[in-house]
Amino acid sequence: MNDLVVKRLPAESGTSGWEAISRRSFPVRTLDGDVSADWLIIGAGFAGLSAARRLSQLRPGDKIVVLDAAEIAKGTAGRNSGYMIDVPHNISSGEYAVASETATKTEIAQNRFAISFAADVAAEYGMSARTFDPSGKINAAATERGVKLNASYGHSLAGIGEEHRFLDATEMKEITGSSYYLGGLYTPGAVMIQPADYIRGLAAGLASKADIFEHSPVLRLERLGGMWKAVSRRGSVTAPKVILGVNGHVEDFGHFRGRLMHIFTYASMTAPFRSRSTGRDRWALLPADPMGATVRKVTTDRSSRILIRTRFTYDWTVQVSEKRLAGIAAEQRTSLEARFPDLKAVPFEHVWAGRLCLSRNHVPAFGEIDAGLYSACCENGLGTVKSTLAGVMAADLATETRSDMLDKFSDQPEPARLPPEPLAWLGVNTVIRLQELRAGREG
Fold first, then answer.
1. From CA 394, how far away is CA 374, in angstroms rounded?
2. Measured in Å, how far apart are the chain's first and last C-alpha atoms?
3. Strand (E) positions, 156-240?
4. Can you tell me the distance from the alpha carbon of 405 to that of 415, in angstroms, rounded to the nearest whole number?
5. Three-state DSSP state, 33
6. Quick check: 81 and 307 in contact, CB under 8 A?
7. How far apart are CA 295 and CA 63, in angstroms?
8. 14: which DSSP letter?
9. How far apart are CA 96 and CA 86, in angstroms?
10. pLDDT digit string (tens) for the chain, length 443 residues
11. What is the DSSP letter of 258?
């Protein structure tokens, strides 16, 4: 018997603005009773629901059950900035410039595979451009250093034949309405999503193909007689194969312990406004420096909102205090008003924290980790794309659906071991803080 007891459950800080302005179209179902299935997926985020959709394509007659500890879109999946990025985007490095050409092209191909999978989801389930918008992205530079980082990134993209275009300060002001930026680097392959709408739309589309149970945390996962049994509060699911799509919480299931970094990032979203001083109806900016501010504008029914995301902290306790959340929101207020002084009277309506999972060597926690137990975890800061990819690849691996894509994705080392705590906490947070200070006005 292999008996894994989950000792902690996800705890979220604040209400995600994406989730708050999203509307779900299906009722909440909670596991009540004992269920048998062909497949059990734990986690109803990008990885878990992508795995469920892929299994429904590969094994259309099989019974698929998905369990989630919280409510769809209220967890990590609904708390990101909503970028599906195709070109290299390693937030743990000091810049985005390309390293190995071969490895980079492999990563781009994998990212685009995931984006294509998501585009099929959006088309099949009738998602609008407000939910899934293939608009490309801009890396915005607010300092001379940022301009140089963009130039370096553009040079490396040119070296591998990737399309890109530089924007000057005038073009940036026309897009954003702000004089804050000195320039930008546009790449066309990224997709902007409303993550809460996307993940809810995917769940709704899977309703006839999988049983999705929310507010049904797995408290114990045990293996008996060739079967896995997941025990929740009011029932259980028994299945021969299980896919874990729980990101950093895979450690709570007894795997990859001491190898994953739990990084929190923080975001604020304004109340709706109708100011004309913020440029086009929709735009999306990533920082030229990875530790700078991500800024997005969304417009619905002639009212706009701006989301700003800054700051990173490493917390092995997987918890964030309300005091810290409020303090970082105050910093974000300063960043917002520096860019858009006309919005001083527009308050933040939603403030929240969201979790990233990183490994030291920038690899996923992926593969068959026990007999019939598969991990599709650790997205390394690109949860929308990397988790989608990992979910699909886990389904392929579990069904023995071989492909060159799966072979390359599987051919990676396991996450490197971290130093013991509190050394890891001290070291990681020191590096993060130094990089944030270096980012300066980009933040």
1. 7
2. 50
3. 165-168, 183-187, 191-193, 211-213, 220-224, 227-231, 235-239
4. 20
5. strand
6. yes
7. 41
8. B
9. 12
10. 455 555 554 456 889 999 999 999 999 999 999 999 999 999 999 999 999 999 999 999 999 999 999 999 999 999 999 999 999 776 656 667 666 677 788 999 999 999 999 999 999 999 999 999 999 999 999 999 999 999 999 998 999 999 999 999 999 999 999 999 999 999 999 999 999 999 999 999 999 999 999 999 999 999 999 999 999 999 999 999 999 999 999 999 999 999 999 888 999 999 999 977 999 999 999 999 988 999 999 998 889 999 999 988 887 666 678 888 999 999 999 999 999 999 999 999 999 998 889 999 999 999 999 999 999 999 988 889 999 999 999 999 999 999 999 999 999 999 999 998 888 878 888 887 888 777 788 87
11. T
How many CB atoms are closer than 10 A to CB 89? 23
Cα–Cα–Cα angle for 326, 139, 437, nearest 5°? Answer: 45
**Do 118 and 96 touch, CB atoms closer than 8 A?**
no
The side-by-side arrangement of strands in the sheet containing 261-270 is 165-168, 183-187, 137-141, 283-287, 294-300, 303-314, 261-270, 348-358
- Measured CA to CA, the distance from residue 96 to residue 81 in angstroms comes to 18
User: Are 92 and 380 spatial neighbours (Cβ–Cβ below 8 Å)?
Assistant: yes
Q: Which amino acid is at 286?
A: L
Question: Do residues 128 and 136 touch, judged by C-beta distance below 8 A?
Answer: no
Element (H, E) at 395: helix 388-398
Six-digit token pair at 84?
């599906």
Closest CA to 49 of 209, 183, 157, 268: 209
The amino acid at residue 182 is L
**pTM of this structure:** 0.94
Measure the CA–CA gap between 16 and 350, rounded to whole angstroms: 6
Quickly count: other Cβ atoms within 10 Å of residue 108's Cβ: 19
- How far apart CA 423 and CA 416 sit, in angstroms, is 15
> Residue with structure tokens 């702000």?
178
- Token readout for 61 is 């007659």
User: What is residue 204's three-state secondary structure?
Assistant: helix
